[in-house]
Amino acid sequence: MDEVEEVEVVVAHSERATLRVGDMFLKVDADQARIDVEVEAMSRAPVPTPEVLWRKPHVLAIAALPGTTLGRLGGPSTGSPAAWAAAGAAIRKLHDAPLPPWPGQSGRGLRELAAELDDECELLVTNGLLPADLVTRNRRIAEAALRPWTPAFTHGDLQIAHVFADGDEVTGIIDWSEAGQGDALYDLATFTLGHEAHLADVVAGYGTDVDLDVIRAWWSLRSLLVVRWLSEHGFDPFAPGCEVDVLRSRM
Description:
Blueprint: E1 7-12, E2 16-21, E3 24-29, H1 32-44, E4 52-56, E5 59-63, E6 68-69, H2 81-95, H3 110-126, H4 132-142, E7 152-154, E8 163-166, E9 169-173, E10 180-182, H5 184-192, H6 199-206, H7 212-232, H8 243-249
Antiparallel strand pairs: 1-2, 2-3, 3-5, 4-5, 6-8, 7-10, 8-9
Helix pairs in contact: 2-6, 3-4, 3-7, 4-7, 5-7, 7-8
């Protein structure tokens, strides 16, 4: 009998799941549109992305990338300052690319985003998930992100775990289902969330002046928007170094 590869569950919740089987990842998504966006975005992005092995309804198979991530939210960074700078340079290359013809996760209208933030803040307090002063303080900080921006080709969910490097070279970026037109500083903020010590390295690699107050505003805004969702889908935003600690650090 042939040896059977071990199946590793990478992420799993009610909307989607990612499994690893040997050197292949299987992404199962209830929303076929997200898979379609992911494949199209990877074909357009001027940065290293995984090879698409095959695609069927609601399932996408991609090859594993060489190297490792630069760390994880809530954990230590395993990447050197040069690796973080290389990631910043790769992100800048993406943002300078021609725009895809669809809006992205961070490309929502300002009114829509502000209304969503207000609703979420109210629920966080009403449901007793977070104290009112913590929510109020971060809601004020988040205000700086709610300003007009020039659309860029953004990844839309550029968590640290989605960027792979081998030494000081970026080998690939994964999970493009939220890609589209959006705010470039949202990508930078998502990538450095919980790793503020490496923000300067990323900005140095990015190679242009950025508004650090807006990046910090996105840290607060993103964290406020996801705490309740994470809690309801089996994740722990209260773990050390994760979203709630990011909010507390703004106090």
